[in-house]
Design brief:
Structural class: alpha+beta
Largest sheet: 8 strands, antiparallel
Radius of gyration: 20 Å
Shape: globular
Helix content: 25-40%
Number of helices: 8
Number of domains: 2
């Protein structure tokens, strides 16, 4: 088994390293103590120590818990600063026999490095401050510290639970965000409507950001139109469950912004995405 401090922790290479609008990858610092390793960047150390993450013991009671595959405690430093201590759990088939243990930490190193690159590139996204790898037998239990964004809602919840379409400004903002993300050479490991957040109050300043990046889940040969097709499948599932659809104009407007108005990309995206929509969407 490779130790967390060995080659598995090296920053992943990326073809976007040479792009001027994409910040270069940095190698995280590692603090090791009694079988537990914390991966972080120096500018986050003070916050991590204040939360108790460096030692592994929360320094104050949780102010709330957020649902997931388990309950994730949230800790507040101030009214405007909230941090989720995410206890990472497996999904899918493997979760039937192993929910807590990961045998490689590479995907978490990649997500930490990608989050850091996006922050320094000015692309709105969830901010992963650090993760810890606690050795358990042949594997590791993983926890992450993620800074939470206030007053946002996922597009999935907006369409499915609130039965409310996003404002046109939100559609445009989301499309432009994805275009910036793709143009900087990045792909999202699970681009779906649950992982795109917008301002919860439509009268507030427009805000869009990407969360749950997980670059380790990007399949071989993936590209930006494939990423958009994955997002379309997510939208189709919500419509099938009775969610509120976008107008035909906003559907096109989103794809136009997400491809930067590039005709070749737009045609490729339309060709790949439209067949994925339910029949009810084809007639609109």
């Amino acid at each position: 088994m490779t130790d967390p401090a060995s080659t598995d922790s090296s920053a992943p290479s990326s073809p976007s390293e040479d792009l001027p609008h994409s910040a270069a990858a940095r190698v995280p610092l590692i603090l090791q103590s009694q079988g537990r390793s914390v991966y972080y960047f120096a500018e986050s150390q003070a916050i991590l120590e204040k939360l108790g993450f460096m030692s592994g013991e929360p320094s104050s009671p949780a102010t709330e818990h957020l649902p997931g595959r388990t309950q994730h405690p949230v800790y507040s430093i101030s009214k405007s600063e909230k941090y989720m201590w995410k206890l990472c759990r497996r999904g899918g088939f493997l979760s039937r026999v192993n929910k807590k243990t990961y045998f490689s930490i590479r995907r978490f190193v990649e997500e930490l490095v990608l989050s850091d690159r996006l922050q320094r590139s000015g692309i709105p996204s969830s901010k992963v401050l650090a993760f810890s790898a606690n050795r358990i037998g042949l594997g590791f239990e993983i926890a992450q510290i993620i800074q939470l964004e206030e007053n946002v809602i996922s597009l999935s919840d907006l369409l499915e639970k609130k039965k409310q379409p996003p404002a046109r400004s939100q559609v445009r903002s989301t499309g432009e965000l994805i275009h910036r993300f793709h143009s900087a050479g990045f792909l999202h490991g699970d681009l779906n409507l649950m992982n795109i957040m917008v301002n919860a109050d439509p009268s507030a300043p427009v805000k869009s950001l990407l969360v749950d990046l997980d670059p380790g889940s990007v399949p071989p040969g993936a590209n930006s139109t494939g990423n958009l097709a994955r997002l379309t499948r997510s939208y189709a599932k919500i419509i099938d469950k009775g969610g509120t659809p976008l107008t035909a104009g906003d559907r096109f407007r989103f794809l136009y912004c997400a491809t930067g108005g590039d005709r070749t990309l737009l045609k490729a995206a339309l060709k790949q995405c439209l067949p994925l929509l339910p029949e009810s969407e084809h007639s609109r």
